[in-house]
Design brief:
heterodimer; A: alpha+beta; Sulfite Oxidase, Chain A, domain 2; eight-stranded mixed β-sheet; five-stranded mixed β-sheet; B: mainly alpha; 78% helix
């Protein structure tokens, strides 16, 4: 199998000096926030405000966007983005509880600084990478993508992130790396949901290597111009917009290149309901939810679900010759 | 003014009080809807809340007979019809909210959903089973059917309760604690009806005097 070599950094992708500095700033703020306050949006904006010398109480309206003037990422959507409050209040992140509001309520205690990601498996540059190290070469982009949950609701989220493929390329996967597996932090002290054996902790997800190298596959560190709120997968999460949301693993601490298909959490629990591929597919009904239509959060009426969540033109070639009714 | 035992006051006041109490979940739902505090997915919230109250009230309806036997307070029976009808009322709201907000009352879509998803089919049939029970709940219908036949018909309520509870259990992804609790309650209520459970006289007779 041919492994796409990482491109050299093009001049257009070099982060400008100001942005680069603000990004470092964000990391410092993240550290401060993790030390005392919950790293919710309010927490993040509080420190932004106090850094600027403002004594106003932190509110959403006062929120200074940390990431501004970002270049738009590939295939970024022009659709109306989901309300920030909804996107941060209505989450599936079972590490913090199974109710939609649980993550927003319980994720405050997650310590996202310092954070590192262990890279292992079939690659030439394994190791423990501090988050700053991992982010350094990448220009952050604004990537506005549709998010379709298997539960038949959807959102449009302006992520702040960069190409997963470029990040993975730096670790120089070898020819045996056919898949890549991601792991979420496992720490029941910080993630109280892990005290119950609902899923096989730590949460695991995976992609075929060509899927991972696709320009749409994203590693995100922020959304809505801000640092990722904890409940949305801080400090580093995957965004795979053409797949059901559970593929987009949150709070990543492990990346492993493997020759065989990884055992992913939901697939392991109920393989007939949650496939490894989990491409958004209105033609394949789920035992619980019809996948033909979806409710965009913020709308009352439902809309038709698009194959590959509307990204068929970009990603359908990845699955040529595959029976998508079988490989769910 | 005749002298009434305090428990008689209670039994007189209980029904109107319970009537108002059963309206509270609906009022709260309307209040929250009006104040945009139904969360990010209000449709889901409306459907879940109405369904949950239908189930709760159905179990409460089933609790009346065991409670009556346990306490010997026969006045409780006067509450049963109202609770049952309220359960039907919330089930109807649940069904209407689902039919309208999920499928805009398009019958082919509803039927497809019923056929493809066993938990929807279970909920749907439980609701359909409740309809004849609600329709025959008047005194006139009881007389018309005759007590025995009426009672036999109303044994369908056990099937409804089981169907509704399994409907809930089936739709939950992995965290089955809440639906299993309802299932356990239902099992308890069914066991409490078995004749051998009640071989003797009521456990307590304290309420009986007042109830007469």
């Amino acid at each position: 199998m041919l492994i796409k070599q990482p491109d050299d950094i093009k001049p257009s992708e070099i982060t400008d000096r100001k942005l680069y500095l603000t990004r470092r700033d964000f990391l410092r703020r993240a550290g401060l926030a993790a030390g005392g306050l919950s790293l919710t949006a309010a927490g993040a904006t509080l420190f932004t405000a106090s850094d600027a010398g403002s004594r106003l109480p932190p509110t959403q309206a006062e929120g200074e966007k940390i990431y501004q003037g970002l270049v738009s990422g590939p295939y970024s959507s022009k659709e109306k983005t989901t309300d920030y409050g909804d996107a941060t209040d209505y989450c599936n992140f079972y590490e913090f509880g199974t109710d939609k509001r649980d993550p927003a309520l319980n994720a405050g205690q997650l310590k996202t600084q310092p954070w590192s990601v262990r890279v292992e498996g079939e690659c030439d540059r394994p190791g423990l990478y501090p988050l700053e190290e991992l982010l350094r070469p990448h220009a952050l982009q604004e990537r506005i993508y549709r998010l379709r949950c298997v539960e038949a609701w959807s959102m449009v989220i302006p992520w702040v992130g960069f190409s997963l493929g470029k990040a993975l390329g730096r670790f120089q996967p070898n020819s045996r790396a056919k898949y890549v597996e991601f792991t979420t932090l496992h720490d029941p002290q910080q993630m109280p949901g892990q005290k119950r054996n609902l899923l096989a902790w730590p949460y695991r997800e995976g992609l075929r290597i060509d899927e991972a190298m696709h320009p749409l596959a994203t590693l995100a560190v922020g959304m809505y111009g801000e640092i990722l709120p904890n409940q949305n997968g801080a400090p580093l999460r995957l965004v795979v917009p053409w797949k059901y949301g559970f593929k987009s693993i949150k709070s990543i601490v492990g990346i492993r290149f493997t020759p065989t298909q990884p055992q992913t959490s939901w697939h392991r629990l109920q393989p007939e309901e949650y496939g490894f591929y989990a491409n958004v597919n209105p033609a394949v009904s789920h035992p619980r939810w019809s996948q033909q239509r979806e409710r965009r959060i913020g709308e009352w009426s439902k809309r038709e679900t698009q194959p590959f969540n509307g990204y068929a033109a970009q990603v359908a070639p990845l699955y040529q010759g595959m029976d998508l009714n079988r490989f769910i | 003014m005749d002298k009434l035992h305090p428990l008689q006051w209670l039994s007189r006041g209980l029904k109107p009080l319970l009537f108002l109490a059963c309206l509270l979940p609906l009022l709260l739902l309307l209040w929250d809807a009006f104040h945009h505090s139904l969360g990010a997915n209000p449709v889901e919230e409306i459907i879940h809340r109405t369904g949950l109250w239908a189930l709760r009230l159905l179990l409460l309806t089933l609790a009346i007979t065991p409670l009556r036997r346990l306490t010997g307070w026969n006045q409780l029976i006067r509450l049963r019809r109202m609770l049952g009808l309220y359960s039907f009322f919330y089930a109807l709201l649940h069904f209407l909210a689902y039919g309208w907000l999920e499928h805009t009352f398009r019958l082919p879509l509803i039927l497809q959903d019923v056929v493809e998803h066993p938990y929807v089919a279970l909920g749907f049939s439980s609701f359909l089973l409740l309809v004849p029970l609600a329709a025959t709940s008047t005194n006139r219908m009881i007389r018309l059917l005759g007590g025995r036949r009426w009672q036999r018909l109303h044994r369908l309520v056990y099937l409804c309760a089981l169907g509704a509870t399994l409907h809930y259990l089936w739709l939950v992804k992995v965290d089955t604690r809440a639906p299993l609790l309802y299932l356990a309650l239902l099992a308890l209520l069914l066991v409490a009806r078995m004749p051998l459970f009640w071989s003797g006289a009521p456990v307590s007779r304290i309420f009986q005097r007042a109830g007469k």
